Structure formats: C-alpha cells, structure tokens
C-alpha cells in the first residue's frame, strides 16, 4: 500500500496518471462566489483536486475559483461527470463540450459517467473512450457502478475505467466491490464519507477522535486514505476545508482500522445504484 504522506500525494491510475488522493467535493455549493471561494481556499491551503459535475450547476464557479487562485491549471486535478439525461454517444460528447465551456478549460483530468443507465451507458462509455483518445481528458471512469453493472460494461470496453466513485463510509464498505475494482485496477473513490453527517453520532468515532486528538471527520477521512480510497469531502466553509485536510500527522493503527471496518452494515444514505428514478 502506498504511503499516505501529504495533501498533494497521489495514487497512480492504471494509465499512469497521478490522481491526488484527497480533494474538494463541491456538491451543493452554490455557483458564483460560494463555490469559487471554496475552491480558492482549498487550493491556497494545498488541495490539488476539485470534483464537480454538470448536475451540480456550479462548474462555472469552479473554473473561476481555479483561475483566481493563481495555481497553474495543470497543477489542479479537475473532475466532472456526465448526467443521466445527457447519456448516449452524441449527447455525451455535447455534454463534455458544455462542461469545458462552463469551466473555461480545454481539457479535464477525469470525466465520469455519473450513474449507471444500462445499455445506454455502453454508448456513453464509447464517447468517453473517444474523448480520452483525443486527449481531451486524461482519465475516464464511472460513478455509482455496482459489481454487476461493471460486469455488464467491462466486456464491451476498449479501455477499462480508471476510477469508480461510490458512496463509501464505515456503514457501507462493499468489500466485494472494492476487491473487484482492485482486481481490474479501477481506483476506488469515496463520496459521502461523512454519512451525510451521521458519522458524528457514532460513539466509536468520538472515542477514536479523543484517542488520536483529532476530529471525527479527520478520523474517517484518514481511514479512507489508509484503505487506498480517494476521498473528496465537500464543504464551502473555510475552517472545515482547512481542518478536513489536516490528516498527515497521524496514522490509525491496524486494530482501529479493523474496528471501523467492522461497522459495515451495508447501509446507504444516498440513492441505491440498483434502484433510483432520475
């Protein structure tokens, strides 16, 4: 397992691209000054990875925040996603162009299929492969794809997805899926690492926070990283953005990692990729 050393550390994707293992999520951050300020704060404090999506309606502000930060574009790992209503070959290519236009960029570092959509996602994936071959995106992947959905997709692809971004936290580990992704060299990534705020109610997390002299959020984010999972906690508050990244002066021991692993109960706080209606 690669050592978790600092905020700008990376995991290597199967095509050799270095993906920072810690980033800023901007889901629910309002377009305009709220999201652009959050991005600027994050970049000024050492973050080099920002994760957005067309459905978040804040790509414009994300692009603005990156430009105003004075950090060179090539030093920031920028991620966006194609929404369900844009899936399909031609419509995905158009959606990608629209995302780039809003971000005011000429390439993305990672582009994801946001949710699985059966056979339509196979056409969407072909569009992503084209964008990748044209070097308009440095890596391509999926989000919210369970094992059976990957098993359906993979036999039809030329390029295996580099990333699978999933709901992931101590109540939802999905070890079978994690193992399957590792076997296919698909980097696992967490969304909702804080269980939509429910993590703060768990006594074991409070106990570990006290033991390590860290916050509950820092304990769970460190657990993600030590499990080899990229994580992108979302916040628009300066103090929290800074605190969330304060993870590199401690390490959870094996016993405490195992205690957190043992919390797994297959419980989702977000939509079920097998049963959603959007």
UniProtKB/TrEMBL annotation:
Keywords: NADP, Oxidoreductase. It holds the Pfam family Aldo_ket_red. Residues 31-264 form the NADP-dependent oxidoreductase domain. The keyword NADP applies. It comes from the Bacteria. Belongs to the aldo/keto reductase family. This is Aldo/keto reductase. It comes from Flagellimonas spongiicola.
